[in-house]
């Protein structure tokens, strides 16, 4: 059995290490590229949202590398992500690929099926071993997300921001070569140390931008055209509201251990939106408000074209923008997004934020005397 | 003095209007409907709604614009779920919020949450909450709702007898007294799509009427027996969690597998998230059973002439197919 899974940012690092610990062979799909997108676009329904297209591309490229089992998570609505497995299975069947797809659906009252699927995937029935490995995977997920968060900060402060890129590039190459949890954690630690050595300029006061929106677009750098890096080089310290580790925590942490970030966002969003709208629509509104309250300079909302929950959120963000006096930029991506236009909009947004900050400082100087 | 309740003639109006009408009338309120969708409503909606929304949501905004200065209350309930473990479209889930944040100077909006996801008991809570605006007498509210429900069930019976809602609603509103009777037509066309696209004659460009004029019998998902729908939808490898999806996919699976239709036309609004999935499911099945399938995508730029041409071509194809299918040319 050769396992593969769709890409979503850095998730592959944890998933790979975890399954390697089970003694399984893992085929990490090649990094998302133009080819991935072209393959996906060619074989997917025309009007489906972008993540499915990328998923299909990932699968095909993995199957070419020898994978025969695909692992995916599911959901039960109301966002169309819940129907991804059904459509994906049909598409792969039409293409003549003989692969096994294992879906981890939320239990919906039927725990047996979920447990069955898990044991089928990991090839062991020992629950202690499973939990242990799973926990280790979770820790890696957290550490990787921390590493990237840290790199975002350093990039904004660094004298030469491209040094950070070099280190992170080396990391993503090396991580494919190491095997298992222990080696992966070692590599993460080493990369941390390298980042700490980068020369920084402490007099910088970088702009702060929070990134909110649909989870896949926020997390997968190929889809959002590496927005964190682009902004970092413009001297912006970026924070993403959604990361895979936060998602795992939100979904698996028992509620008596305190509020997860997402639940805090629900609270914040309450005056604007009371109920769920599917996907991360409510979190988008809430997190934008939380960023505004923390004093961020601006917020960027990312969504794939025609994403239903985020369209609702976008409408509400219009009011949030006014109420909290914070600039919010909505960027919509799909397979036709051009990089140049995207960069121009980012630059314009950053310019606007800089100017706002200058004006505010200026006012402060004027009225102090 | 009785209150004026504004009901936009869009989206779920096409599903539940008879129910709402009876309920509010029983409570002594006056109902103000917006006019049939037209160009100016569409334009108003397009300019007030966020660009990325789909056509029916934009049109809904247009209807609200028309009503907002004429009524005391606007009725835009927050429909989350109308059946256990099922949802409606995410945009309907957030509809009141979308309207409130897009249009200024609104009268008070009745945006009561209707959520039967976990249990049906929530419905009565929601009903009482709506009724409270008009009377403090809970019994009266309940009575009004029971009456409305029983009339609504009569309306549903009309549908079950094969009257498509576009006609049923007309009968109901007493605009037209007789249902257009069809000559015996040989071909049955299944017209699929969300009710608010199918039955809004402006959005669907009177597609159903045109088909009927060509002497085609039109079937829509609403008139298919609910038992059949449930049976066929349960054959899907995954439980369908959209109520609209169940109806569309279930009805079409039934009719396709029973070979009860000669062709399928799917009317979809551009950028509809549900349809991107549903169309894939339906068209795959249609292809497998060799039933002609065509997709008509509508948005605010749709031109009627182009749709007509496609419709004519589709009808011709169906007729020729029937006439010539077994004919193999001797000329090679």
TrEMBL record, chain A:
Pfam family, one: DUF2229
The keyword RNA-binding appears for this protein: no
Keyword Transferase tagged: yes
GO molecular-function term, one example from the UniProt record: kinase activity
Domain DUF2229: 8-71
UniProt keyword terms in alphabetical order: Kinase, Transferase
Protein name, entry field: Predicted nucleotide-binding protein, sugar kinase/HSP70/actin superfamily
From TrEMBL, chain B:
Lineage top rank: taxon: Bacteria
Pfam families, sorted: DUF2229, HGD-D
Limits of the DUF2229 domain: 4-224
GO terms, molecular function: kinase activity
Keyword hit for Kinase: yes
Coiled coil location: none
Gene3D superfamilies xref list: 3.40.50.11900
Cross-referenced InterPro entries: CoA_activase_DUF2229, Dehydratase_Activator_Redct, FldB/FldC_alpha/beta
Keyword set, alphabetical order: Kinase, Transferase
Keyword Transferase: yes
Name of the protein in its database record: Predicted nucleotide-binding protein, sugar kinase/HSP70/actin superfamily
């Amino acid at each position: 059995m050769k396992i593969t899974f769709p890409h979503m940012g850095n998730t592959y690092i944890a998933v790979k290490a975890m399954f390697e610990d089970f003694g399984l062979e893992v085929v990490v799909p090649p990094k998302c590229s133009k080819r991935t997108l072209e393959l996906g676009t060619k074989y997917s329904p025309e009007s489906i949202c972008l993540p499915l297209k990328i998923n299909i591309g990932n699968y095909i490229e993995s199957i070419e590398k020898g994978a025969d089992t695909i692992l995916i998570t599911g959901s039960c609505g109301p966002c169309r992500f819940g129907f991804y497995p059904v459509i994906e299975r049909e598409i792969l069947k039409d293409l003549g690929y003989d692969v096994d797809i294992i879906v981890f659906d939320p239990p919906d009252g039927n725990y047996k099926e979920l447990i069955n699927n898990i044991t089928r995937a990991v090839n062991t029935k020992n629950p202690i071993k499973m939990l242990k490995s799973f926990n280790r995977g979770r820790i890696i997920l957290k550490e990787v997300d921390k590493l990237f968060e840290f790199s975002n900060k350093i990039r904004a402060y660094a004298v030469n921001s491209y040094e950070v890129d070099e280190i992170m590039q080396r990391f993503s190459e090396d991580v494919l070569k190491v095997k298992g949890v222990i080696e992966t954690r070692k590599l993460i630690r080493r990369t941390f140390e390298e980042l700490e050595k980068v020369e920084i300029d402490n007099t910088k006061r970088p702009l702060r931008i929070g990134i909110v929106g649909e989870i896949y677009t926020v997390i997968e750098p190929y889809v959002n055209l590496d927005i964190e890096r682009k902004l970092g080089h413009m001297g912006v310290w970026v924070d993403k509201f959604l990361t895979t580790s936060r998602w795992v925590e939100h979904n698996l942490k028992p509620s008596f251990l305190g509020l997860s970030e997402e639940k805090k966002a629900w609270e914040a969003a309450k005056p604007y939106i009371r109920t769920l709208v599917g996907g991360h629509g409510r979190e988008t509104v809430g997190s934008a408000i939380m960023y505004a309250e923390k004093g961020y300079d601006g917020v960027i909302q990312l969504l794939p074209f025609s994403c239903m929950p985020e369209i609702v959120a976008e409408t509400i963000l219009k009011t949030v923008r006014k109420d909290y006096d914070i600039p919010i930029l909505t960027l919509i991506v799909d397979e036709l997004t051009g990089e140049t236009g995207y960069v121009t909009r980012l630059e314009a947004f950053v310019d606007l934020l800089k100017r706002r900050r200058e004006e505010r400082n200026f006012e402060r100087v004027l009225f102090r005397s | 003095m009785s209150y004026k309740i504004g009901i936009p003639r869009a989206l779920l109006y096409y599903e539940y209007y008879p129910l709402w009408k009876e309920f509010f009338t029983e409570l002594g309120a006056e109902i103000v409907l917006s006019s049939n969708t037209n160009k100016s409503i569409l334009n108003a909606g397009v300019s007030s709604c966020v660009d990325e929304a789909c056509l029916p949501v934009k049109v809904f905004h247009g209807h609200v614009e028309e009503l907002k200065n004429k009524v005391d209350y606007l009725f835009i309930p927050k429909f989350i779920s109308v059946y256990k473990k099922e949802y409606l479209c995410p945009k309907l889930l957030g509809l009141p919020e979308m309207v409130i944040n897009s249009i200024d100077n609104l009268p008070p909006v009745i945006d009561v949450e209707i959520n039967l996801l976990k249990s049906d008991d929530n419905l009565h809570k929601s009903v009482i909450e709506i009724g409270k605006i008009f009377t403090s007498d809970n019994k009266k509210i309940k009575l009004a709702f029971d009456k409305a429900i029983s009339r609504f069930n009569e309306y549903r019976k009309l549908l079950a007898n094969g009257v498509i809602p576009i006609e049923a609603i007309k009968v109901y509103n007493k605009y037209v007294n007789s249902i257009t009777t069809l000559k015996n037509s040989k071909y049955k066309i299944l017209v699929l799509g969300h009710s608010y696209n199918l039955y809004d004659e402006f959005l669907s460009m009177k597609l159903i009427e045109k088909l009927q004029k060509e002497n085609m019998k039109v079937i829509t998902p609403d008139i298919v027996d609910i038992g059949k729908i449930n049976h066929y939808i349960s054959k899907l490898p995954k439980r369908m969690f959209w109520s609209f999806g169940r109806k569309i996919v279930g009805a079409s699976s039934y009719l396709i597998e029973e070979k009860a239709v000669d062709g399928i036309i799917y009317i979809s609004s551009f950028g509809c998230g549900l349809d991107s999935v549903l169309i894939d499911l339906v068209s795959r099945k249609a292809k497998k059973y060799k039933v002609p399938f065509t997709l008509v995508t509508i948005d605010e730029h749709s031109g009627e002439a182009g749709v007509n041409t496609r419709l004519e071509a589709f009808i011709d194809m169906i007729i020729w197919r029937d006439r010539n299918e077994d004919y193999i040319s001797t000329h090679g």
